[in-house]
Amino acid sequence: MTETDIVTEHLDVVIVGAGLSGIGAAYRLQTECPGKSYAILEARDALGGTWDLFRYPGIRSDSDMFTLGYPFKPWRDAKSIADGPSILRYVTETATEFGIDRHIRYGMKVTSADWSSAQARWTLTIARSDGAGATEEITLTCNFLYICAGYYNYDHGYEPEFPGIGDFAGRVVHPQFWPEDLDYTGKRVVVIGSGATAVTLVPAMAQQTEMITMLQRTPTWISAVPARDKRADRIRELLPPKLAHRIIRIKNILFGIGFYQYCRRRPQAARKLLTGLTTRILGDEKLVAEHFTPTYDPWDQRLCAVPNADFFKAMKKGKAEVVTDHIETFVPEGIRLKSGRVLPADVVITATGLQLLAFGGIVPRVDGAPVRLADQYVWQGAMLTGVPNFAVCVGYTNASWTLRSDLSSRLVCRVLRHMDRHDYAAVVPRPRGPLGERPLIDLAAGYVQRSIADFPRQGDRHPWKVRQNYVLDSVTTLRTDLSKTLEPTPRAAVLNPVAVR
């Protein structure tokens, strides 16, 4: 035993990220693999991930909470489309209820991850913060590394260069870093962008602003949905909480998959349906044609949901407007558009989207060589070729993130049990024969296209294809024959010294 082995803590599993996915992964690990030691490493000083970081007005889920919530923890609040603070409370309650919070280590940012084939273990280099600005570097080893940090860059949002922005006399704000001191009461506000963040901000701010304008280059598909699920309310009145939650969850899963398939297979009918619903709310066909009828088909990009049509209602009340145009330049009093119109503004909010970042920025190294992620394929939506004992958590793009993330966590537990049963020190997925190549996230959205080349790829057939279908995945993911695609390393073939826990 070397001096390094004595001072370096060793764990069976390390989970990176204490957000919605990481807490769910910990629950599955401690219930399905109860003998495994584990820790959750969280770079920030609080759990919750997205739901703790993002504090802009009106932040909410864009999926219903019966499917975005955990299958093992019934959602009990009234609203199906929930606000950010409610979701954060739910995640926090889950961590506390199941003792997961005792495994979270805050201020622990993984800066490098090195796999040793000789020892069949990961060595993690971690920048540990004391909460007061000081950091120290520590190391930690583990047998299995599970990245639940999502695929966004939470330190930097996407900020395109706007001509003349330095001349603007007002204040520019990015929603990802919302300032607590921002007072927009009675102000003229322009929100640049038309995605989920923008359509959330507009109705949330409209009651306090003099006028709020959403400035978009091109239209986005936006659909009104009920904030409360009346059928779910009725089911919860009649049945015990766990049974009611299960039935509502199945109902919503089937509806979501059905609507997605309808949009993909009958795009013209889906276009007519969505524009018809929006026209019925706004009562203006020309307005809908100009600002709410995209050139792309529904679900070529993610559909924006607005609960109780709040976005459209703000427009009807005259408190908000939508402008479809391109920015020519910022001017002291606002934004001059290519049409020549000047949008007056005291505050400009750049809801221009997030930047993708593969797996929290962690680039794994195997036996000293950095892994080029873009050369790897994803197996079962979770493990990577070329990287042993390593998994990532990636949710659905057309449904609630948690549906896929929970399946991935259960798959990881199944892999761990498979390794124990056969006395394997390591496993890595290997394809049999050549694979076709597709991007991991197959969406036409700009935020995806800007960075997806840096991510691993998916193949053209199961189990290398990342299907956007929970029903199929729920049937096959946990029944796959692990011996056919996971290449093992027997424990007897590696040097794995005993470590002090």
From TrEMBL:
UniProt KW Cell inner membrane keyword: no
GO molecular function list: flavin adenine dinucleotide binding; N,N-dimethylaniline monooxygenase activity; NADP binding
Source organism superkingdom: Bacteria
The protein's required cofactors: FAD
Coiled coil: none
InterPro entries registered for this protein in UniProt: FAD-binding_MO, FAD/NAD-bd_sf, Flavin_mOase-like
Alphabetical UniProt keywords: FAD, Flavoprotein, Monooxygenase, NADP, Oxidoreductase
Keyword tRNA-binding: no
PANTHER family: MONOOXYGENASE, PUTATIVE (AFU_ORTHOLOGUE AFUA_8G02570)-RELATED
Protein family: Belongs to the FAD-binding monooxygenase family.
Descriptive protein name: NAD(P)/FAD-dependent oxidoreductase
Organism of origin: Nocardia bovistercoris
